[in-house]
Design goal:
The strands form two sheets. Strands 5-4-3-2-1-10-11 form a seven-stranded mixed β-sheet, sandwiched between helices. By secondary structure, it is α/β, with parallel strands linked by helices. It is built from nine helices and eleven strands. Bound molecules: magnesium ion.
């Protein structure tokens, strides 16, 4: 099972509800679980891990992929250990940071100081947040209602950084990564590490729409379930656990149709 984090397991930028922690712990008794996000590991800690409680065995089945799987963490008995990191080079970072700042200044969008850092080095990703990392949701929503500011800065940066990928992140943010880094990239890394095929995965995300950041996972052919908020995810996880414990029961979730890939979904077993 693979989950998006923000707005799928936890409300945006907030921590996971204890009911979700319980449901995930029950799921982890049955299958391997991966959480993948564009955000940093610190965001996983704040939103999901700080209150998460599961048996040591269950924790070993949890796979964490911040920044779209360019980093991968696993529980190693005493803590979360980094398994690999694919960071931008120092040159890629400095060019990205300089370009974002110059572009924001030129376009009149540079307004630092209020809600934390504007430009953040996430190792494998440079992120520009117009109002700062800690800006309140209402301020973010009001900043660029028609998306024109973000588009202008995105165009400015991608013109000057043709070797890198410039992409809109949240409502006020722009992410710069190596080309080809999205959630499908991370899920591909997970398949390699666990020696699984995409047919053995089920993905749940809130942005599986055409332009959403979860869409690439669906497009790589992974069975995907679109939810609108974490409440729906919670109901889905509860239904999945019940289904896994009820041999022969019909699959309880609506999987997005993928032309040419209709197939039956069967429960997997740990170590089976
Ligand atoms: Mg999301």
């Amino acid at each position: 099972m693979v989950f998006d984090l923000d707005d799928t397991l936890a409300p945006s930028k907030s921590s996971m509800d204890p009911k979700m922690s319980d449901a995930l712990a029950r799921l982890l008794e049955r299958v391997e679980v991966c959480i993948i996000s564009g955000g940093r590991f610190e965001q996983f800690e704040a939103q999901a891990l700080s209150t998460f409680d599961a048996s040591p065995d269950a924790l070993r089945r949890l796979h964490l992929m911040p920044t779209c799987g360019t980093r991968y963490y696993k529980w190693e008995g005493r803590g979360w250990e980094l398994q690999y990191a694919e960071d931008l080079t120092a040159d890629e970072k400095s060019r990205s940071i300089a370009t974002l700042e110059a572009g924001a200044r030129e376009l009149g969008l540079w307004a630092p100081g209020r809600w934390g850092d504007i430009i953040e080095d996430r190792g494998s990703q440079i992120t520009f947040s117009a109002l700062g990392q800690q800006a309140p949701v209402e301020a973010k929503m009001a900043w660029d209602a028609d998306g024109s500011k973000k588009r202008a800065l995105g165009a400015y940066a991608s013109e000057r950084l043709p070797d890198l990928e410039v992409r809109g992140g949240g409502s006020t943010s722009i992410d710069i990564t190596r080309k080809g880094i999205d959630k499908a990239y991370g899920v591909g890394k997970l398949l390699d590490r666990l020696q699984l095929s995409r047919d053995e995965l089920l993905f749940i995300g809130d942005r599986l729409d055409e332009t959403g950041n979860d869409r690439p996972v669906f497009e790589m052919g992974v069975a995907s379930v679109a939810i609108s908020d974490w409440h729906e995810t919670l109901a889905s996880v509860d239904a999945l656990v019940e289904w896994m414990d009820s041999p022969g029961a019909p699959f309880p979730l609506a999987v997005m149709p993928f032309p040419g890939r209709e197939r039956a979904i069967r429960p997997a077993t740990i170590g089976g």
